[in-house]
Fold:
Amino acid sequence: MSDKKEKIVILGYGWVGQANALALVRMGYEVFYYDVVTPKKNYPEYEAIYEKVKSLSKSLEKEGPDTWYFVCVGDRVSTDGIQDISLIVTALDSIREAKGRIILRSTVLPQYLNKLNFDYYLPEFLHELKAVEECLQPPHLIIGKRNPGLPDPGFLTVWRARSRKVFDGTPHQASYIKYLSNVWNALRIAFVNEWGDAMIHQGGLSSSETQEAINFLFEKKSYLRYGKSFGGHCLPKDSLAFA
Structure:
């Protein structure tokens, strides 16, 4: 079971922050959050668990050597692909004097990581409809450690045991894996849609005939189905930023 001495403070209580908070409460942890704005509850089916996550008036309110800070603040990407991580930097600066450890769960390009203060980089690969469940049992767990000799906290040991596969490496490797996943998924969706359009406009096939042919080869797998472009919070901005 988890080490109940560990307190969890979530900085940035949006989609990612809430999914982590709700999952960690279900794992038996005492969880708090700090955000500069009043958050909207993104997972209403977990109403009872939300009540167990307490709001803080400042980020270091529960400071101590057994406190683990999860930085889940979002990045912003301009139309010309420039990533803005100023909000992430501000969040990290607010806990610079912390005695506890820091886990970065925000999306950050590899070239910016050396400028940031954290102990672990754990990029997230969550799907909004099942994000809490994927926090509880990660399909895969990517761990980028600044100090390879740092002992893992209890919750990370649990995640390791529950994950189908685990990658241990550097923060830069973790960041490249995150971007490889999102850019590759965006590329697959775009390619299949372009191919399907060619089948319709050049080959004279109907939409249903096109879907049938593509589904035969790709077996209706995620990101390989014709007819729906990619959207959401991550694929468009991450592809643009990496490019």
